[in-house]
Design goal:
Blueprint (H helix, E strand, L loop, with lengths): L1 H6 L6 H9 L20 E4 L2 E3 L2 H11 L6 E5 L5 H6 L5 E6 L2 H13 L5 E5 L12 E6 L8 H5 L1 E12 L4 E8 L5 E9 L11
Parallel strand pairs: 3-4, 3-6, 4-5, 6-7
Antiparallel strand pairs: 1-2, 7-8, 8-9
Bound molecules: S-adenosyl-L-homocysteine.
Length: 203
């Protein structure tokens, strides 16, 4: 998977490639799809959601440009696979999932596999995680129509966010950088197709 789908498409970061080699993707997909876990495509994980294509996980992880001392937030835990990929590359990973069943199953599998620096929360990613902020990095794996302002607020000066931003079917993968003075620079990169980031209902 790593050689043919990821290195061949230009992902070079040694740390990212090594983590992808070591992360058991089959543990994060429904049992009836385990035989397909290392194929070059997203897979359904239930509740109308998907685990992203391995190459897109690698690309977004490389773009996020993380370090071992960073405090990181992910929006859209889904299966927990992207969280598992980020875990060894950062100090602490917080991840938020709006579907309670997915939050619970991701937490179970991440605990079982020993990812001790990951904390999963059931909640609405539009609100971020104020108690755990500020973050050095934020990654969205569900697509909002616009970058949620609360997430920009929770990013440290010098921080970066990687997010699919746009319509319900297709989006641009965007890299946002927050400068020391708090101003932001937004750069669109490649077209992608993520599930929409939905609005939480008041509970
Ligand atoms: N990162 C995941 C893939 C996520 S698919 C993985 O590695 O498997 C996108 C996920 O975002 C879905 O599970 C969806 O339920 C979740 N999501 C959608 N809107 C959300 C919101 N407002 N807050 C948190 N999670 C959300």
């Amino acid at each position: 998977m790593v050689r043919e789908q990821i290195e061949a498409r230009g992902i070079k970061d040694r740390g990212v490639l090594e983590v992808l080699r070591n992360t058991p993707r089959h543990q994060f997909v429904p049992s009836e799809l385990q035989a397909h876990a290392y194929e070059d495509r997203p897979l359904p994980i239930g509740y109308g959601q998907t685990i992203s294509q391995p190459y897109i996980v690698a690309l977004m992880t490389e773009m996020l440009d993380v370090d071992r001392d960073m405090n990181v937030l992910e929006i859209g835990t889904g299966s927990g696979y992207q969280a598992a990929v980020l875990s060894p590359l950062v100090r602490k990973l917080y991840t938020i999932e709006i579907v309670p069943e997915l939050a619970r199953s991701a937490q179970t599998i991440l605990e079982r596999l020993g990812y001790r620096n990951v904390t999963v929360k059931h909640g609405d990613g539009y609100l971020g995680w104020p108690e755990a902020s500020p973050f050095d990095r934020i990654m969205l794996t569900a697509a909002p129509p616009e970058i949620p302002p609360a997430l920009v607020d929770q990013l440290k000066p010098g921080g970066k966010m990687v997010a699919p931003v746009g319509g319900t079917e297709y989006q641009q993968l965007v890299v946002l950088e927050k400068r020391a003075d708090g101003s932001v620079r937004v750069r669109a990169t490649v077209p992608v197709s993520f599930v929409p980031m939905v609005r939480g209902t008041k509970r």
